[in-house]
Amino acid sequence: MPTFSQPDHSEPREQSLPVDIATCIRFFSRIPIPALGPDDVIDQPPDFRRTARAIPLAGLLISLPAACVLLLFSATDLPDLVVATSCVALTAILTGCLHEDGLTDVFDGFFGGHTREKRLLIMHDSRIGTFGALGMMLTVLLRIALLAQALDAFGAFVAAVLYITSEALARCFMVIAWNSQPSANPGGLGQRFGLPDWEAAIWAVLSALFLTLVTTLVVAPLSGMIAGLVSAAMAYGLVLLARRKIGGMSGDVLGALQQIASLAFLFGLFLL
Fold first, then answer.
1. For position 6, what pLDDT does the model report?
2. Does the pLDDT at position 187 exceed 50?
3. Is residue 213 predicted with pLDDT exceeding 90?
4. CA geometry: angle at 252 spanning 250 and 257, to 5°?
5. Higher-confidence residue: 263 or 216?
6. Which terms in the GO cellular component ontology are assigned (predicted)?
7. How far is Cα 168 from Cα 165, in angstroms, rounded to an integer?
8. Is 115 exposed, middle or buried (0-12, 13-18, 19+ CB in 10 A)?
9. What sign has the CA pseudo-torsion 103, 93, 160, 84?
10. How far is it, in rounded angstroms, from Cα 38 to Cα 145?
11. Mean per-residue pLDDT, 91-112
12. Looking at the predicted structure, is the pLDDT value of residue 9 above 70?
């Protein structure tokens, strides 16, 4: 995650939606985005009280290059597993494995510690433990296998659309959890970058729901709706687990939530 000096959050910065999207892309990925105007200040930390509204749309754009690779490689004789692996790998490269890092920390902390304090201590450790390594390996393998199956079952175009949808919807759940749940760490994300307000959360929900409804109704109505419900259920389950294990949200939990929710969406495509 990028590091910044302590921001001044006395008043939320008023920015246009394109600037908010650009800010989120810079924060959640390695994609270089130039300043879009005088109100787009790159060297200042983001104020997610308002900017968080653009997180799902930023997720869509961040995953778009990987979806294009999926389409491009699908036009060759490469096996579906190779195509799916390339898509997942490019997504990880573009995000700098930001969410994957949170996932490994959550696996290590939640299942390696016996007290709240010990779990938080483990999650702050930059080293990867056994639970984190195993959790990362299993989720990556499942993501590749499910995406390859989507290529076979739906075709390249529909699979690419569903992949983008899964990434955007998962980030919507991030914003909801970030907005509605207490922070597990004093001086955590809410203090450093601002807690998303309800306006930002509603924006994020509406944009993600619109995208999900449009794409799933057009390309895979029944499977897409079931996948969305499964994704929401898994995100909610992780929120409940985080409340029980560490008492609330952290940056690592939000990263893990994105990974689990997007994977659950792909999983839900094949329940019927």
1. 45
2. yes
3. no
4. 95
5. 263
6. plasma membrane
7. 5
8. exposed
9. negative
10. 45
11. 96
12. no
Q: With cut-offs at 50, 70 and 90, classify the pLDDT of residue 229.
A: very high
pTM of this prediction? 0.90
Is 1 part of a structural domain of the chain? no
Domain membership of residue 4 (yes or no) is: no
Measured CA to CA, the distance from residue 157 to residue 150 in angstroms comes to: 10
Q: Is residue 11 part of a domain?
A: no
String of DSSP letters for 104-170: HHHHHHHHH-SSHHHHHHHHH--S--HHHHHHHHHHHHHHHHHHHHHHHHH-HHHHHHHHHHHHHHH
Give the structural domain span for 117.
17-268
- Identify the bridge partners of residue 175 per DSSP, sorted by sequence position: none
- How far apart CA 266 and CA 82 sit, in angstroms, is 17
Give the Cα separation of 117 and 129 in Å (integer). 17
Helices (H), 220-250: 221-245
Q: Residues, the chain, total?
A: 272
Place of tokens 């959050």: 9
Domain for residue 144, yes or no?
A: yes
